Amino acid sequence: MRPLLFILALFISSTLKSESIIISSQYAPVIYHELGHNPSADEFTRVDFDGDWNPDNNWDHLEKLKRPRVVYWDVKESIQHYYITYAFFYPRDYARWCFWIHCHENDFEGIRVTVEKPSWVIKLEALAHNFKTEINKPAAIEITIEKEGHGVYPFDVRPPHEPYKRYSPNDYELRPLSELWTKKASSLFNGKFRYKDKYYPANSWGKKWILFGLGAAKPPWSWEIWGSDIVKGQWYLDP
Predict the structure, then answer these.
(1) Fewer CB within 10 Å: N-end or C-end of the chain?
(2) Global confidence as pTM
């Protein structure tokens, strides 16, 4: 019986994974991305866009290497809902005039789409610099990502300023956040935080413009929402 149970477990796991991929594709956002004075730094990409998992050389490698358009996704499911996270990684959070913390190497911002089963989108939430904006029952899953700092907003809350570039879901690749989760104990991350008696990596490493760890990028499981009663880690880990 044990081999049969093992095969059944693999089948169930594969089925659930396939379903999650379909769901993430079905609700992927249309993105209106503003362009700052360095448009190449306003392009979301893979964490390992430069062919390595070293977070301390991304700032310098940005303009030397190709940067594929990638959006990371994760699907969590309850009896009644799907909670779909989409995350956008950048080698630089920058500004025309940089100073400590305001600019920093590596950046991770994102959104969550809540779907009431079977297929009713009931909420679109977006994060911008630890603050959240949301729309209930959005007519479309469209977002604006600001230039330079890359805060994310529902399109209806903040339309983009010129110049900007529009991305449909056909313009980028969806990759599972599990790729990063499997590296949670690696040198890709730094520090820890505690949520429900478990410890999670708090920040991505990075050296440029980061002072005493302040300004370091947060992976999605470490996102926090200021001005709310949602504690660090809860929004992603326990929707």
Answers:
(1) N
(2) 0.91
What is the spatial distance between Cα 199 and Cα 16, in angstroms, rounded to a whole number? 26
Provide the pLDDT confidence category of residue 96 given band limits of 50, 70 and 90. confident
pLDDT digits (tens, 9 = 90+) for 42-61: 999 999 999 999 999 999 99
For residue 130, what are the CA distances in angstroms to 97, 122, 151, 220, 224? 22, 22, 9, 11, 6
Query: At 173, phi and psi to the nearest 5?
Result: -95, 140
Structure tokens at 125: 């939430």
Q: Determine the 3-state secondary structure of 144 from DSSP.
A: strand
C-alpha pair distances (Å), 219 with each of 8, 69, 223: 33, 18, 7
Task: Assess contact for 107 and 94: CB atoms under 8 A.
Answer: no
DSSP letters for 149-198: T--EEETTTSPPPSSEEEE-GGGSEEEETHHHHTTTTSTTEEEEEEETTE
